[in-house]
Each structure stands twice: as C-alpha cells, then as structure tokens.
TrEMBL record:
This is peptidoglycan glycosyltransferase. Residues 73-240 form the Glycosyl transferase family domain. Pfam families: BiPBP_C, Transgly, Transpeptidase. It catalyses: [GlcNAc-(1->4)-Mur2Ac(oyl-L-Ala-gamma-D-Glu-L-Lys-D-Ala-D-Ala)](n)-di-trans,octa-cis-undecaprenyl diphosphate + beta-D-GlcNAc-(1->4)-Mur2Ac(oyl-L-Ala-gamma-D-Glu-L-Lys-D-Ala-D-Ala)-di-trans,octa-cis-undecaprenyl diphosphate = [GlcNAc-(1->4)-Mur2Ac(oyl-L-Ala-gamma-D-Glu-L-Lys-D-Ala-D-Ala)](n+1)-di-trans,octa-cis-undecaprenyl diphosphate + di-trans,octa-cis-undecaprenyl diphosphate + H(+). Keywords: Carboxypeptidase, Glycosyltransferase, Hydrolase, Membrane, Multifunctional enzyme, Protease, Transferase, Transmembrane, Transmembrane helix. InterPro entries: Beta-lactam/transpept-like, Glyco_trans_51, Glycosyltr_51/Transpeptidase, Lysozyme-like_dom_sf, PBP_1c, PBP_C, PBP_transglycosylase, PCN-bd_Tpept. It comes from Bosea spartocytisi. GO terms for molecular function: carboxypeptidase activity; penicillin binding; peptidoglycan glycosyltransferase activity.
C-alpha cells in the first residue's frame, strides 16, 4: 500500500473559503439578529406618559396664553405642536440636528458613520450621530449611562417610534420634551421664559439660540452662562448659513443681537379667574376661557395707570362683558395680584359692596315697566320725609319739579326715593332676585326700607354689571360666562323688565353728562358713590358691550374724595376707548311712547298718587319744639338774632309740612324744613307754636327783652 503523503491532503480552494466566510457571516448575522430580537422583546412597552405630563394652562378665546401653572414636580411644560412654532426654527433644527430626519427610519447610518469617523480622527466624541427620533427616545426614557448599550436602546426605541408615529408626531414630542435649562421643558416654555413671546414669532437669533440650548441646557443657559450661549448660537448660525436657510446679512445681524441674560416672568393675565377655573376642574390640563387676552392686558394696564393717582390701599376692579352672549371678555380683579397692601389676591369683582346710586336705573326701569311713570313724568325734587327717613340729594340742593329723565341723569336722590316708595322696596328687591341678581341686606330677613334705592344693600361688581347687561339686552338677562364653551342648561332666559322700559332707561342714560373731557352721548352709563366714600362705581353699555368699574379699598375703608363720577367714570370711558365703542343706536321698540310731558296720557304726566308716599304717623317721632325752649328769655340784641334781625325757630320730629304761629297767628307758610326765621315785633311775652302735617302741635312761652 502506498502511504499517504501531506502533499496529497485536499485543501479548500478560494471558492470553499468564500463559502465558509459567507456561512460564518450568515451565522453571525443570524446570531446578531436573534440577539437583537431577544433584546427588543425583553424591553418593556414604550412609555409615552412623560409626554402627557404637561403644565395646566389657561387660554383665552383664541388660544392665547393667559396663565400657565407649574407641574407637580415644579417644572414649566407648556404643550406645543409644530404648527405653533416658527417654520424657520424647524428648518434650523433639522439642519443642525438631523438633516435626513424626514427620510430616515429612526436611525441615520450615514450620521453614525460620520460620528465614528470624527471620533477616530480626533480621539474623542465630536458628534453623537443621534437623530431627533433617538433624542426623543432618550427624553422619554432618561438614563445616566451614555455607553453603547444606551445608544443601542435609543436606536431600538427610535425605530419603534418611527413604526408607530408619524414624523410630525415625533417632531412634536421633541418640541415638548427638549430641555432648555433649569425647570424649562419644551420650546414654548423656553420661548416665554427667555423672550416673553410665543415660539411662532421668533427672530433668527432667537430661533438659533433655542436650537443650540438642548445640546447642553445647563452649561449654555443664557441667564447664567451668556457667553457659552452666544458661542453655541454662533455655531448654529454658521450651520444654517451653509445650509442656505439664512442669508449672510441675516446671520451677521443675528450675531449682533443681544443674548437674554435673565428669565422673564410667565404671563399672569386674569389670575383670579384662572385660579378659579383650575380649582373647579383640577384634572383638566387646558382651560379655554371667553376672555380676550389683548383686552385683558390693556385693562389691567389701565387699572395700574389709574391707581398711581390713588392711595396705596385703593384698588380697581373692571369687568367687560359681551352683551349678546354674556361672555366675559376681561376681568380685572384688582390692580396688582401680588400687592399685599391692596389685598391683590382677592377678586374684588366678587366682593359685596354698597352700590350707592348705581342701582337707580333699575328703580326707574321697574317704575316704567309697571306704568307708574314715563321718562317725561314730572317728579318733585323737594324736601320730603318718609317716617324717620329723610332723603337728601348729594349736593344738598333741590331742583323743584323735574322730569324722570332729568332726575335720573342728574342722579337726584329725592325723586328716586319717591319712585321707590310708589313701587315698594320689597317689590323692587323681589324683581331683582327673580331676575337672578343677588343682593344682600344689612339685616337679612328684615323688611327692606327705602334706603335700598340709594345703596343700602350689598351687591358685587359681577352682579351689577350683569344687571346692566340685561338693560342692554332689552330687559332679558344672561348669565355671565367665563368659559368659551356656551352653557347648555336649556333654562329659559329670565326677564328683568320689558323691552320698552329697558329702552327708556338706555335712552335716558345715553344723555347723562359725561366726565370731564369725555364725548357725550356715546355710551349709556351711571355712576354711584356709597355712604362714607367707601365705593366708587361706574357702569356703562353700548349695543355690543357692557363695562363695570369699581374703585375702593378691599377692607371697605373710607377714602376721602372717592366719588363715582370723579374717579370711576373716567376709567369707564377710557376702558370703552380701548375696547371700541359701537356707534349704533339702541333699537327703539315699536310701542315706546316718545312725547313731551304735555302730550303724555294724563296718568303719566305726574307721578301716580294712589300709593301713599308718607309712612303712617305712628312710625313718626313725636313733634317737639327744639328752639326756643319753654320759658326762655331772649335778648333782642344783635348777638341773639341773625344778620337780618330774625330769630331762628327749630322743630324736631313730626311730619312735614310745618306751620309756625305766634300768639295763634301764622307767621310762615307751611314748610317742609324744620327750621324757620321769624322777625320779632318787639319786647314782651309771646307764645310760639308749631303744627306738623299730621296736626300735632307743640307750644312754648318766651320773654323777649
């Protein structure tokens, strides 16, 4: 037998080696694929809850931010979508972070190769090769490790995200989750904190800075490391210039733009209403209100400006309402929410205050509605007494006979009380309450007196303004609505008065004399001043809107000189100037009577007298002759008499009119006042008597010497 020889041993050829190599590679691929599959299966389901944990925000009727709230972990996370961001910012972001974002499947092989090559050349990590999708995966599952295992996990999650979400949804996740330093999360929060604006209106420099910050948010924070932020912004600007997103001139101008070195406060418009709606629905993350952010900001500025001329403790509340819907367009609860001296945290649109004369239009409206009077009905503005109640006009004068129109325009107290007496205070309050207006009496449950017509009760600015909205709506009431969604209660509307009476009042108030330097006849309005100068009011309306203004101290303290016409009315007219006045006239009802006093039906020419104006005499204090006292010796020298040589006679109690007699002979005509002047004829004993309107009398004997 021939022995075997080494040269005879078969050797694999090149083809065989290739087959072995292919088999080994296949086995390696299979092994890697199996390992990757097992790894993927070992991962828990992707948790997107981090994207759902957002700040509660309160928005205006058009989606503008009124006030955001911190999350439970103390971070600002304002929801945003790619539609809410400047398109140039998105273009810069993709150009700087992920040029092939719109085409890759979550990972970018070219980007990974580039990153690996840079690491080999420089001996360090120059760029990570992460796509925006991988960054979203890292933000959804934050980990401290930055090794290959972490990169592998991000790559797997990125592919998973791409399979289940659209590119727009992934981009939106990045815009919401990207860190910008401190407690800022998301581009919208960063835009407000650094620039005080929505990300829809970013400049080139601002957009470039927001692109640069998430790469290293804590070391590039412009409020702490302005120079580092400037350099990072410059690198972004250089990249976008090469990409053709910005011109050379735009880049030069952007480099010269200042870096913000401090964070701005987040919006706090209408903080009282914002807190209220969030407290009502704490689980709701987005609250859309009926307010108009621009008007709200303007009226808050107006309140601050006007407060500069007032005492530090005085605050201002303003409410603006859409007449057609009852939607509140602006609600200023106070001058400064953070001012302890003004009790800024209190919503003063909800505070019970005395309205002064601001309720008078509703007395006239109900009198017109009940056929008791007409705007041209003549009323008496003379001294009057209703039991122990003696109303007086604000200026302590009397006009004599005046029309109801003039009495309301001049805000005369005595004719108003005369109307309320004919109407009945209980009936008046019942009509207000039946219309949904809440009023509080000093002693709840007691019988209301005539003083309620001049402010002897409590009402809020919200309720008072709502009542005026009812007048603007032709007597039909509408609930105030703070949310944008209309209520669907299905409850029939309440009515305060009929359209004719409401038009009479609106037409009358349109002729009220305006404050100094204001144009007359543009808004129907009324002012009010409470007893002791504690509250100043002004409420007015046109066809479209009603605005209510209150000025006073939160602690109900007196403020010398706090008069509605002087303090509150100018604020009202300025508020309407900022809102815009509807020039259309109030529509006149077909059955309204437009006539002078002489052409009215006879019962309406003067106030009906079928309702007694004077309370029963049993409620009247007893008549007493106060001066001179019985048995007095009166020196007829100049010191004892007035400048005209007359002796002043005074009575107390009783009911007007008063007639004075000396020795049984009348010396004066019947007077409503309790004082009279008498010319003594000479020295001697005389008997002075006074007789009141009920026939009661009182006499004294005096000696003139």
């Amino acid at each position: 037998m021939l022995g075997s020889s080494p040269s005879m041993t078969p050797r694999p050829g090149r083809f065989g080696k290739l087959k072995i190599g292919v088999a080994a590679c296949a086995l390696a691929v299979v092994a890697a694929t199996t390992a990757l599959t097992l790894y993927i299966r070992s991962l828990p389901p992707l948790d997107l809850s981090a994207a759902a944990d957002r700040s509660t925000v309160v928005l205006d009727r058009e989606g503008r931010l009124l006030r955001p709230f911190l999350t439970t972990d103390g971070r600002w996370k304002l929801t945003v979508t790619s539609d809410d961001v400047d398109p140039r910012y998105l273009a810069m972001l993709k150009a700087y972070e992920d040029r092939r974002f719109d085409s890759h499947p979550g990972i970018d092989p070219l980007g990974l190769l580039r990153a690996a090559g840079q690491m080999l050349r420089h001996g360090r990590v120059v760029s990570g090769g992460s796509t925006l999708t991988m960054q979203v995966a890292r933000l959804l599952e934050p980990r401290d490790e930055r090794d290959l295992a972490a990169k592998l996990r991000q790559a797997v999650r990125a592919v998973e995200l791409e399979r289940h979400l659209s590119k727009t949804e992934i981009l939106d996740l990045y815009l919401n989750l990207a860190p910008f330093g401190g407690n800022l999360e998301g581009v919208r929060a960063a835009s407000f904190a650094y620039f005080g604006k929505e990300p829809k209106r970013l400049s080139t420099a601002e957009a470039a800075l927001l692109v640069a910050l998430p790469q290293s948010p804590e070391t590039r924070r412009p409020d702490r490391f302005a120079e580092a932020a400037r350099k990072a912004r410059a690198r972004v600007l250089a990249r976008i210039e090469r990409a053709g997103i910005a011109t050379a001139g735009e880049v030069i101008a952007a480099r010269d733009e200042e870096i913000p070195t401090a964070r701005r406060p987040f919006p706090t418009l209408s903080p009282h209403v914002a807190e209220q709606v969030v407290a009502e629905a704490p689980a709701q993350r987005v609250h859309r209100l009926s307010l108009d952010a621009r008007l709200q900001k303007s009226l808050e500025g107006l309140a601050r400006e006007r407060s500069l001329g007032l005492a530090p403790q005085v605050s201002i509340a303003i409410l603006a309402v859409d007449n057609e819907t009852g939607a509140v367009r602006a609600s200023v609860g106070g001058v400064d929410y953070f001012a302890a001296e003004r009790a800024g945290a209190l919503d003063l649109t909800r505070a019970l205050r005395s309205p002064g004369s601001a309720l008078k239009p509703f007395i006239y409206a109900l009198a017109f509605d009940n056929g008791i009077a007409h705007p041209e009905t003549m009323l008496e503005d003379r001294p009057a007494r209703y039991g122990s109640y003696v109303p007086e006009n604000f200026d302590m004068t009397f006009q004599g006979m005046v029309s109801a129109r003039k009495a309301l325009q001049l805000s005369l107290n005595v004719p108003t009380v005369e109307l309320l007496s004919a109407l009945g205070p209980q009936r008046f309050l019942s009509r207000l309450r039946d219309a949904g207006i809440t009023v509080a009496l000093p002693k709840e449950g007691g019988a209301p007196g005539l003083a309620v017509g001049l402010g002897g009760l409590g009402i809020t600015l919200q309720d008072l303004t709502r009542a005026y909205v009812g007048l603007a709506r032709g007597g039909e009431m509408a609930p105030l609505r703070f949310r944008e969604e209309p209520s669907s209660s299905g409850t029939p509307p309440l009515h305060l008065v009929e359209p004719v009476a409401a038009w009479y009042v609106a037409d009358t108030l349109l002729g009220a004399p305006p404050p100094l330097n204001a144009v007359p006849g543009r808004i129907a309005y009324k002012t009010g001043t409470s007893y002791g100068y504690r509250d100043a009011w002004a409420v007015g309306f046109d066809r479209k809107h009603t605005i209510g203004v209150w000025v006073g101290r939160a602690d109900n303290g007196a403020v010398p000189g706090l008069v509605g016409r002087v303090v509150a009315a100018p604020i009202l007219f300025d508020a309407f100037a900022r809102l815009g006045i509807d020039p259309r006239p109030f529509p006149q009802p077909a059955d309204a009577i437009v006539a002078s006093t002489n052409h009215l039906p006879p019962p309406l020419r003067h106030l009906r007298q079928d309702v007694p104006k004077t309370v029963a005499a049993i409620a009247t204090p007893a008549l007493k002759l106060a001066f001179p006292p019985d048995g007095a010796r009166i020196d007829l020298s100049a010191d004892s008499l007035d400048g005209q040589g007359q002796l002043n006679l005074k009575a107390a109690g009783g009911a007007p009119p008063f007639t004075w007699l000396v020795d049984g002979t009348p010396v004066t005509a019947p007077l409503r006042r309790r004082e009279a002047a008498w010319q003594p004829p000479g020295k001697g004993f005389m008997r002075i008597s006074v007789v009141d309107g009920t026939g009661a009398s009182e006499s004294v004997s005096v000696r003139l010497q």
